[in-house]
Write a structure and sequence with these properties.
The radius of gyration is 27 Å and the shape is globular. The strands form nine sheets. Strands 1, 2, 6, 7, 9, 10 and 21 form a seven-stranded antiparallel sheet that branches. Strands 24, 25, 26, 27, 28, 29 and 30 form a seven-stranded antiparallel sheet that branches. The chain has a four-stranded mixed sheet with strand order 3-20-19-8, with no helix packed on it. It is an alpha+beta fold. The termini are far apart. Helices cover 18% and strands 21% of the residues. A hairpin with a 5-residue loop joins β29 (718-722) and β30. It is built from 14 helices and 30 strands.
Length: 734
């Protein structure tokens, strides 16, 4: 069936749901008898309509051959901001993932070029079949930030989960939530496609890459997509194509434990087998007849972490000493085969650190690998066997799926937000924000196939299609465009600092700190690293929660993006980690703050018990994330705590978003003589004194209160109450 027939079917389905009248506002009749002619005629595009404000200024047709971002129908179908009918009401149906891919193929196939034409366009630049992860984004999330556009990367980031993926048609993407079960989280797929691409030195005025790094990127080579490859006779003039995407993924975390540490009881050849090395059952290609070709979907697992089995028996090993908390070792195997939970033994940290006992291995479903394209019809042009692979990551769940690393880096680097001598400010988070898309490291050379060269440093970068005319500066007077409200599979939403990282690690077996990206230099399982990162104040911003207020005060960290009372289990809602936060209690005749001790927290056990949740944290928007970070920052400033040591003296006892009207807020405003506008956050902080452990419960900590401060924080003002003083307006200009 001709591509135009697919497009016609999609248009016919959507026409009665508000799409006909919406597109007719631009002069495009999607019910026209000759749809192909209708799609190539000039239009009068109305960019004042909601969702079309960031449509390409050069776009003037329903379909512009080979230019998706200049094709009005593709923009309307693919943009997550096209949600409203002509009258402002929400459209009653939206394009499916399959229909969006069909429109994209039609953009490239309506006037198919020849290979010779593409070669002439590339000039002296090398051509190859290259696999990209890609998605269509609103203007603020694109390479040039001047219009909505497709973004491409040779790195895709899918994510593990416990429930199947679910496409949200209105948002044109995927989200991890299972509405009926707060303790489940959906896998997040990554979309890959094969393109004929040209290799060029970085060019900020043409294709990028995003967040251009001068002079580094000017001297690096990047693959730039020219033409999408798809099956059939309509893709390239004179050719009948078959396009096959191959995928390989590997999880060898457990093997690496035994490579890095001696005396564990396991060595080759055993550690070459499953589950030491896992290559099966990690992911699958979604049915192309339902969602289009190239959607790589992680396999949903019953639990985020599962007991590892070898030769039909639970896999145990001798716990090595000094793993730095990155290998789970809290389930000791006794001589009789029974299992002892060391979390119930006093001094568990010292026991784990010392090692030397038998314990159980647990596995997760994270992996790294590649996606490679085969197109036999292009062999005679030298573009099949030399095809260029994409780096494929199956990462850990993202507990803030709507917040990207790239956007947080740009925001926190703005001196108007956080004045500092050398942005990005190190005092905002405990590590500098750096998205994976900004990293210029080679890819794991040990992956089967040797598809990544040592000098290939641009695989994680994000590029656009090449612009014929130099891109101009973003128009500052342009209307504000909403960010996409979905989970991204591109690497600007992934962490790019590694110690280890969140989604991908750094190093090799024999060179642990080498600047090489791979999946095996991560914690085993990932929940071990998640525990540490969360307790360090969201050490990986935008993906890890901040659990500092859940546990007793620790000098190593202070709150950066405080979790609400609901998110740490102080309401009826399930906490993100299965734990309960601090509460006030009486101890030896005085009021103290009661905590569950950090030492006895165990996120691997929480995952086994299906207690990890992103149902609450996951709905935090980028703007809300900003507001929380700023609220915490301003609170510290009001306390006179500007240095890390000063901040660590204060702990958050309560934090919540005030649901107005609120009687307590109104009383505070009246007492302070100032009314707060907009969203208001409430904070209860205290300066902590001595920390003690009650004799009857070594898992509990009691913390003395030296001073109490309550705050109401709005975007423009801060009300403060110290101990028993009156509420007053704090002067933030000082």
């Amino acid at each position: 069936m001709a591509l135009v027939s697919d497009v016609q079917l999609a248009c016919s389905r959507l026409a009665a749901h508000g799409w006909h009248s919406l597109l007719l506002q631009h002069g495009l009749d999607i019910t026209a008898a000759d749809l192909q002619q209708e799609l190539i005629k000039p239009l009068s595009v109305d960019r004042t309509l909601k969702g079309f404000e960031d449509f390409s200024p050069e776009g003037e047709r329903g379909i512009e051959a080979g230019r998706p971002a200049e094709s009005l129908l593709y923009h309307a179908f693919a943009s997550p901001n096209v949600l409203s009918a002509v009258d402002g009401s929400q459209l009653t149906a939206f394009p499916s993932a399959l229909e969006i891919e069909q429109i994209l193929n039609f953009v490239y196939g309506i006037n198919p070029p020849s290979v010779e034409t593409l070669s002439a366009y590339a000039g002296s630049a090398p051509l190859a079949i290259v696999v990209f992860a890609y998605e269509y984004r609103p203007r603020p999330e694109t390479v040039h930030k001047t219009q909505a556009d497709l973004c491409f990367s040779r790195t895709g980031v899918a994510r593990t989960g416990t429930a199947p993926a679910l496409y949200d048609a209105a948002r044109r993407g995927f989200l991890p939530f299972v509405e009926t079960d707060a303790q489940q989280m959906r896998v997040i797929p990554a979309r890959y496609g094969a393109y004929i691409a040209m290799q060029k030195k970085g060019d900020s005025a043409s294709f990028g890459p995003m967040s251009f790094q001068s002079p580094t990127d000017e001297n690096l080579s990047f693959w730039v997509p020219i033409h999408k490859l798809f099956e059939g006779k309509e893709c390239l003039l004179g050719l009948d194509l078959t396009v096959h995407l191959e995928n390989y993924q590997i999880n060898e975390k457990i093997r690496q434990v035994h490579m890095l540490y001696k005396g564990t009881g396991w060595q080759e050849p055993d550690i070459l087998n499953d589950p030491f090395v896992i290559t099966e059952g990690l992911c699958h290609w979604a049915d192309s007849t339902e969602v289009g070709a190239g959607l790589l979907v992680p396999n949903a697992k019953e639990r985020l972490v599962e007991l590892a089995y070898y030769q039909g028996q639970p896999l145990s090993f001798t716990m090595p000493a000094g793993t730095g908390g990155l290998v789970h070792g809290r389930h000791r195997v006794r001589d009789d085969g029974s299992i002892e939970d060391l979390n119930n033994v006093e001094g568990v940290d010292a026991i784990v650190k010392a090692g030397g006992y038998r314990t159980l291995h647990y596995q997760d479903a994270m992996a790294d690998g590649w996606v490679l394209a085969r197109c036999p019809a292009l062999e005679s042009y030298g573009m099949d066997r030399d095809s260029v692979a994409a780096y494929s990551i199956i990462g850990a769940p993202d507990f803030f799926p709507l917040c990207g690393q790239r956007e947080l880096k740009a925001w926190s680097s703005d001196p108007a937000v956080f004045p500092c001598p050398t942005p990005p400010c190190p005092e905002v988070w405990h590590t500098r924000v750096n998205p994976l898309s900004d990293v210029r490291f080679p890819i794991n050379p040990t992956l089967k196939g040797n598809y990544f060269a040592d000098d290939d440093l641009g695989a994680t970068a994000i590029v656009s299609m090449a612009r014929v005319e130099p891109v101009g500066e973003p128009v500052l007077t342009a209307p504000e465009i909403a960010l996409a409200h979905r989970q991204s599979c591109l690497p600007d939403f992934a962490s790019g600092v590694f110690g280890p990282g969140w989604e991908v690690g750094r190093g090799l077996v024999d060179k642990p700190f080498a600047n090489v990206l791979n999946g095996y230099m991560l914690a085993s399982p990932f929940t071990e690293d998640a525990r540490i990162c969360a307790a360090l104040g969201s050490y990986w911003p935008g993906v890890a929660p901040d659990s500092t207020r859940t546990f007793e005060p620790r000098k190593v960290a202070s709150s950066v993006i405080p979790l609400t009372d609901a998110e740490i289990g102080l309401t009826d809602a399930p906490s993100w980690d299965g734990l309960k936060g601090p509460v006030l209690a009486e101890f030896e005749g005085r009021q103290v703050v009661q905590y569950q001790a950090y030492e006895y927290s165990d996120y691997t056990s929480a995952a086994l018990n299906q207690q990890l949740s992103l149902a609450v944290t996951g709905h935090t928007t980028t703007q809300q994330y900003h507001q929380r970070v700023l609220a915490m920052h301003r609170a510290y400033q009001a306390l006179g705590a500007t240095e890390k040591a000063e901040k660590s003296q204060w702990s958050v006892l309560s934090f919540l978003i005030v649901q107005q009207p609120d009687e307590q807020l109104e009383d505070a405003e009246q007492e302070a003589g100032h009314r707060l506008e907009g969203e208001v956050m409430y904070m209860f902080l205290y300066k902590h004194g001595s920390i003690s452990t009650p004799a009857d419960d070594f898992k509990r900590r009691y913390v003395d209160i030296d001073a109490r401060v309550q705050m109401y924080v709005s975007q423009s003002a801060l009300l403060v109450k110290e101990d028993d003083s009156l509420w007053h307006l704090h002067d933030e200009s000082i």
